[in-house]
Amino acid sequence: MRGETSVARPWVRRIARPQALIGLVLVLVLALGALLAPLLSPYDPLALHVGPSLASPSLAHWLGTDLHGRDLLSRLLWGGRVSLSVGLLSVTLSVVLGCTLGVVAGWYRGVSERLIMGATDLFLAMPRLLLVLAVLGLLRLSGAASLLAMVLVLGGTGWMTMARMVRASVRTMADGPLARAGVGLGLPTWRILFVHLLPQALSPVLAHATLNLGRVVLVEASLSFLGLGVPPPTASWGATIALGREWLHSAWWISTSPGLALVGLVVGLELLGGALRER
Amino acid sequence: MGRFLLRRAGYAVLLVWLVVTLTFGLLELAPGDASLHFVDPDLPAARIDILRAQWGLDQPVALRYLQLLGNLARGELGESLVHARPVRALLLEALPPTLQLSGLVLLLSFGLGVPLGVWQAARRGSRREHAAGLLLLALYAMPEFWLGMLLIMALSGGLAWFPSSGLVAWDHANMGWVEGTGDRLLHLVLPTLTLLLPALAWVARHQRAAMLDVLGSDYVRTARALGLSAPQVLFRHALPSALVPILTLAGVSLPALISGSVVVETVFAWPGMGRLMVQAILGRDSPVIVACFLFYAVLVVLGSLAADLGAAWLDPRLRDGGRR
User: Fold this and answer.
1) B43-84 pLDDT, tens per residue?
2) Tag placement on chain B: N or C end, fewer CB within 10 Å?
3) Within a domain: residue B299?
4) Are the Cβ atoms of B26 and A135 closer than 8 angstroms?
């Protein structure tokens, strides 16, 4: 049954291009750094005065220290956990929402399609950052709750393009042999939709999700930069950049490394997503 | 066309209403009300009750919601709780700097990004295009606040070419006309660059994709087969079709630009809408928050309407709602 619509290049071969490989390496290095932060980081990211205050990069502190003498390499590794977990969770939510709504709109047509597509247009018009800003800024949640709210809002505002993609491919497949065979065999509708049709439409969606992950990571960093992300003692890239803002001219290293990590992660995801999108 | 406009207008009202309702809901959900934030807690309870009554906080939620909708419909934005000034005046003050900045960025990013994308599509696969693509990708991936700081470090701190914060220098009032204008322009450079570079990369990427799409189509192949020159095919036949999606992009780029300006205005202490809003949110100045969100919703609606009209003008098939 598989590969009945268009034959896409297997993903292994799509990955095996120099650009995609660079992207993969960038993402893997940063992701592993975040994942293995407890093992890799030389110091406790929250511990104060593990080194001198505002020390420039040295052998003892590869990326230097901040005003409170915290080790910046450790904070970089731990900060990646915040960015990646918020990003991955909210993009997963977006994918689930987008696929479900897209499948429903593409299969059932009629009123449900109109409603879903209308909602898609509406959500597309909302400035994402402002929405998250309002929710987090007004509700002033504490630690875990603010993370959850961020995931919910970012995930809840990132599904629209994916819903459109899924709807378009389900629509074309709805009259195709795959769907008719399923109906003829008397399979339940949900099985036809989610087991047989959806996987066919998934490849461009996953490529888009990869690209989306980069944007979400940037929004999370912006929020932390504005002081509305994860609350202070926790390490996050955006917050470290904000901290370095006051020492731009005297301690350039504070905001340089988290900024480079952000750019590296987003570039990596872009290269990877771009390669996945091409056939 | 009439039906199209009517539908769009309905849509616009719906969106604006939703945004206002959402904002009101968030303000209601937020713990405590204005009396907790703006009143000395040592005042006798009776005095606080009087203030609450003055602000209408003693009314039921539903009534306050309807009052808000009524006031907004009549164009009354109320008074800021923090600044004790009419919200309208605050908006009018913050609007010009933001419009200046986003207008300039919008103009430059499309003015430069479109030719760049066309060039990239025409020279696809060449070494130079590859290099340009990588550079644009890096720009696209840059968080605006970090880019702004890098620029401050390099061009304001290191080289001291441009000022890094505010609209004008502190001694702007003493300057002559020429000097004053120069001062304004100098202050515009860094925030504009910060917003421009990622936006430029974004526009070029979309223009490149749209152009490649069109260049692969049958009619372009036909035009080439008929022996038309390369520039003729590119500019006369391919470009107009490739501009349609970009026009839509220009309309919807307003929200993105605004989101970016929120952060950039904070970095550069630019007294515009973005900073007004961040400060209102942090200071819980509910009338200002509602007004800001209302303003953004209206801007978004106008932007997408303008994009649709522009697309209909460029592409006749879209004019009767795609019925042909």
Assistant:
1) 777 777 777 777 777 777 788 888 888 888 887 778 787 777
2) C
3) no
4) yes
